[in-house]
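To: structure desk
From: M.T.
Subject: fold request, one chain
Message: Could you run this one when you get a chance? Sequence is below, nothing fancy, just the single chain.
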Amino acid sequence: MTRPDLFRLSPEEKDALILALLERVAALEAKLNQPAKTPNNSSLPPSRGQKANRPPRPKKPRRKRKGPGVTRELAADPDHVVDCHAHACAHCGTAVPADTQRLHHAYDHIDLPPIRPVITRVRLFGQRCPACRRRVRATPPETMPPGSPFGPSIVAMLANLHHQHAVGYDRLSRLMTELFGLRISEGAIANALRRANRPLDQAEVAIVERLRQATVIGCDETGARLTTADQGTRMGWEWVLVSDTAVLHRIHPSRGREVITEVLGEHRPRCWVSDRWGAQQGHAATHQVCLAHVLRDVQYAIDAGEACFAPALRRLLCWAIAVGRRRPDLKDSTLAQYRAKAERRLDHLLGMPTLTEAGAEMLRQTKRWRSQFFTFLTDRAVPPTNNASEQALRPSVIFRKVTNGFRSLWGADVHALIRSVIGTGRLNGLSAHQAISRALVGQPIFA
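Reply: Done. Structure tokens follow.
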């Protein structure tokens, strides 16, 4: 702000300037009195919250265990069994026959064998055809094509360690050398992961087809940092769409609705679960807003001094979520009555006065989104929150914080493909490594 020349101002202009500054000071003082945004009352991530010092916990006296202790469960099918028999009595030296002894104790000894890569050298022979004099060469095996020397098991391990556990290229190169005796450079790791997008594209097509058949879909988005030599550093957005059997990640430069339109096409699910972002609206017949986001906004209004409307709204939403947990034991008619009761209680709350500006804003937001609060009460397949989508995005957020983003566009695409495969495999009972391994060889990842 440039400082005006006060000597050139008229008395009326000085008065106007003083009044404007007083209004500005009053606005800043009012802002100082507002509560701070925290992860408990806003959408800030937990990493940006202030961690309070915990008081020291008093030490409890150690309880004596009643009964025998619990040890590791024995393996169902051990690879080897070693039977140890006594040869002689340790007290008098008398020989003890082995056929009369009975089992007294059994335990498992677990160890890993030396791990080293299995190297298969493929030699292709050929000659000139004796008839046409053209060159003839043998065809390589389909599972061992020429080009990259690394097989799908190595690529699956690299993808799992990098995209699931956020192990960088440098550490990953040293890890493969020290644990498995496999010398692989950082460039070779990048090339192997880049080539993985071809078989993973087939898995993505199957995931998209499953999403286009889903009746309930949850959606969310988070930031993705892209750094390229041509465009520099810019922010993109990682979108995730979650159904009961499929998870799809897409990294796109826009936060608009183009990604959802491209994925779903003409499909229109029965219900859409998301936050209150504008690009998330209008994709299904019904909508369920994430009540966890609403409860955080309600908590902010309470922290700002709203003592009437916000606490009552919090009690209503918590009661509705508790009813939602009991849906498997309730009839459809009972759920319809509960939803009608929730709507009547909300009608009563909307007539209550507000005491603060934060409470008035919460009242306006409630009137705007009230039709999407209680969809889950009468639709058993709809969750009251969007936690499934947020949990699907959490590993990508950790990956972004550890690696500081992507250095290429193809790296972002491969990350989205692998996260889609891992998320879908987990919904279908597969571990991350199993899902990646099956997708790389073209096997289905659906139950």
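Reply (cont.): The chain has a mean pLDDT of 90. Let me know if you need anything else for the meeting.
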